[in-house]
Amino acid sequence: MKNSVLAALLLILVVAGCTKDEEECVSKPETSGKKVEVVLEQFQDSLVNIKSKAALVSLFTRQPLLRDYIFRRTEYPSDSVFLDELYARFNNPHLDTLLLETRRVFGDVSGLKAEFEEAFTNIKYYYPDFTPPKIQTVISGLDTDMLVTDSLIIVSLDFYLGRGAKYRPKNVYNYILRKYDPDDILPSSMLIYGISDRFNKTDMKDKTVLADMIAYGKSFYFAKHMLPCTPDSVLIWYTPEEVKGSRANEDLIWARFIESNVLFATSHVVKKDYLGERPVTIQVGEKCPGRIGQWVGWRIVNKYMESHPDITLPQLMNTANAQHLFKESHYKPGKQ
Asked: What's the pLDDT tens digit per position in 105-130?
């Protein structure tokens, strides 16, 4: 009976009124006079203007990451098949349409460059030894969205044209398409940095759902502080209503986690249910957004940092012990 009542209550998630909106701007670091300069290379025009296979070979020889990760050379049986496919793609009239759409949305990409410079300036504030990566922009024919490494970020601009674009990524569910608006490029790249072992230290021996929740939570906390005024909904790819509903029903969500013994489970099935990409977390309720475990992890990390104002962001990110973080957060929604 208890579970039935809880499930019924959770059906109102998102629909119910809420008492707290999305998190507003977090504290922005004082970086005046310390702006990081970014090198940005554009390949979208040069790719469309490829006139021979020899020119394509020359480009890919100079740009192996572009070749192997954005255009996925290893998935083709031979170089000749790969070159034939890519040459035909770059000479397809539809790619001209993508290029025009890209210019319409991103212009000369100076705005995108400025956004990366601001984010990297914030990273360097927290991590003085940080060296910003080079940025490259391309149109891939909706092949691959983004590559992020320590030294290079490649962005397929055609993936991020957003609602109303003539062409959108193919065979992608609508709830995933939320990730591919123009405003999602910076959050996506910062989240990838935030989850990487370069910044986010984790205990590889801890296979629990809680460990994954905390790792995700730290990555969201990291991204939020590199992009201080980015709405929570943009960072986690929820609608504003889903964020509000989750905040309003946070105690009920947490009760489901406890009753279902989710935190210390190690099953891949349980991880997929609570952390994986899906439209809803049906195990919690019909209106509960997917990846709710990631959101709860973020809430735990936020509570930990509120409870420990002396802890710096780098110290948080270097804390590998998820259970310690959870215990010291004193996270108990509805009783705070």
From this structure: 999 999 999 999 999 999 999 999 99
